Amino acid sequence: MQQMNLFEGRSREELESRAPLAERMRPRTIEEFVGQAHLLGPGKILERLLRNRQLQSLIFWGPPGCGKTTLATIVANRTRAHLISLSAVMAGTKEIRAAVDEAREVWAREKKRTWLFMDEVHRLNKAQQDTLLPHVEKGTLLFLGATTENPSFEVIRPLLSRAQVLVLEPLKDEELRLIIQRALKDAGSGLGKYPARLTGEAQEYLLAASGGDARSVLNALELAVLTTPPSAAEEEGSERVIDLDSMHEALQRRAVHYDKGGEEHFNLISALHKSVRGSDPDAALYWLARMLEGGEDPLYIARRIVRMASEDIGLADPFALVQAIGALQSHELLGSPEGDLALAQAVVYLALAPKSNTIYTAFKQARELAAKTGTAPVPLHLRNAPTGLLKKLGYGRDYRYPHDDPSGWVPATYLPGSIAGTAFYHPTARGWEGKWRQVLARRRQQVEAEAQVEENKNSQELSDHRQ
Fold first, then answer.
1. Per-residue model confidence as pLDDT tens digits over 112-150
2. Of 450, 427, 449, 455, residue with least CA distance to 439
3. Which residues lie closer than 8 Å to 239 by C-beta, 6 or more apart?
4. Residue 304 lies in domain
5. What are phi and psi of 115, to 5 degrees?
6. How does pLDDT run across 196-212, given as a tens digit for each residue?
7. Are residues 380 and 417 in the same domain?
8. Has this prediction a pTM greater than 0.90?
């Protein structure tokens, strides 16, 4: 049976005209691209790579609608390389091998390098990544990945080490405004043949609801323009006015007034967080109610409440995190409006709980030091010794098992020697962690004294050996 070609006889221009506005308005050159100035500004890393046409595997990591796919196409065109586009959702090892064969053919025929653009790269399983890895290593093709997930968790280490990860940011309001104006004025690819303008309220609502996603903005804009009748139907070319209600219908979200004075998405969550941190349950309930009434995703609020429990309360009241997780799970089980009460209970509990940010600051300092001392060797007494050879090399030697001591604790050093004695966690005198403040201080003094004794012993042994 002959397969029917649904697109036969249709021009490319006709097919493109049927594409969504976001696809029609996709920038073709770096000059048309909007946003990501931290990567594309003069002297920034991606600008230098494009200016010098330097070929290097890249992974674009950023939220939806920030320009990952567009940048990938621009990079391939700007570097005058062949581009093969695949989606990790659809592609398997067969498609990857076919791409490798195509890259070899292109090089043999045109002496042109090939970019393999892989969208949703976090969806590739380990076997697929292992199939791709040797060909990236040999330079058969250059890898160009795009993902909304942290590549450190989703991409295998050998592949990650051979690619430069570039972090893309959500688009700013002024950048989205420029994209909106371009779409409204462009009569070819945009909406210029439907004269339209947005009221100030409609535009602010669209920007606030988009979360920096250009695709979301353009999809909602197209729907709003095409479903809004001209202000004077009998007059050809009359203007369509997109007001707040029209934009609300296009986005299918509750219309609230988003303004820079306090009702904007990020201002509201900031007000809720700071009210909890400031131990004001009344204000916390108010801002929670404002966000829910404004149509905010309750699970977004629940996730932020979990963060508050660790960031601002921590071990001053360990049960705060239990309350926060319970509220999240309750809302997942019940939904709105029943689950909203669990969120209210959590914010009141967190507001009344004793406050401490010591976990937040301690972990931040620990990560900063870990980044600087990431090659420090693990002390021998802490190493795993599953074989006799490793035991002979000293692995696990002199390790003291805390459970053998009646108190359940022994003074010992657990940090690498170069940073031994560093203290990150300094408990407050408040709540549960206050009970451990003196205990921890006393233990640290004992460890320091033990380390000093060991250092003196080693120094004496070294001196005797020299004599």
1. 888 888 888 888 888 888 888 888 888 888 888 888 887
2. 427
3. 195, 196, 197, 230, 231
4. 267-352
5. -95, 130
6. 889 888 888 888 887 78
7. yes
8. no
